[in-house]
Amino acid sequence: MFLTVLERSLSLAQHNIGTLFRTGWAYILLLAALNFAIGASLMPESGFKTVSYMTEPVATADEGALRTLAGIANLLIGFSIAIAYVRRILIGANDFPIAFGTRTVRVIVYQIVLSLIGLLSLIPLIIIASIIAALTAGFGLLLLFLAPFVVLMVVQKFSVVLPAAAVDDPLTLKESWHATRGLGWAMAFAALVMSLLAGALVGVWALVLWMSDGLLPASLLWQQIRSAVFPMGTMLIFVWIFASLHGTFYGLIRERFAEKLGLRNEDLAKVEASRSDARARAQKALDGAQRMKRR
């Protein structure tokens, strides 16, 4: 099942790169403008020493506060891109290029809830593993190592509410947990692999931008552009990877519901066929009895 989930997630992502840009082009331009403006305001006279303003050492509290606000703004726009992307691949929606409403708020609230679930699940697991480690050493250390993965599994079982909220499906956390029965570990492994893939792609993106300094003439303008496109590209990578992953999860549970519905319809058809056959036999017996009486 793990390979099935991972393969479908990768396939969905691979075949919808163009969809990401078609549905999120307005948000992408907004991301670029936002990061360019903030990067220009934080850029020192000598230019950035790293790839982006996001990767520069924090010199003052004001810079840290502005960078935090920039991070929040990038996340908000990223959620909007993810919603537009998921709506297009799941239900073929063609929404207005830029939209922010209750749907976006629901997705953000669910993401905060999932983060809290992960944190609240991790704390007791670490405490229990630490106690066991103090008593048994090796086994406790193994539990400490496995605790984050267990938390990842728990969070992924609840995470189907994110694409559901994006397509206005009133799926609850409880329903998400039950609908993913038997898929938890496969979802966790797929999420782990996709996370590693996202991290690798971000690293490649940073390396490409860093190498661009040797290919292009030294320019403060290019440093500002590079500083802006790094967080923009990073956000797009994370949206593309994880929206495809959770879109796959949502498709899997809906397929399960469809299969159950199909089985019920098939069972009803079998019952109806049995009834029709019984009626036909009864009618045949009745006709035979009437013929005997006539004789």
TrEMBL record:
Where do the TM regions start and end? Answer: 24-44, 64-86, 107-135, 141-162, 183-208, 228-253
Q: Please provide the record's keywords in A-Z order.
A: Membrane, Transmembrane, Transmembrane helix
Region entry Disordered, spans: 275-295
Q: Which domain of life is it from?
A: Bacteria
Report whether Acetylation shows up as a keyword of the record. no
* Name used for this protein in its record: 4-hydroxy-3-methylbut-2-en-1-yl diphosphate synthase
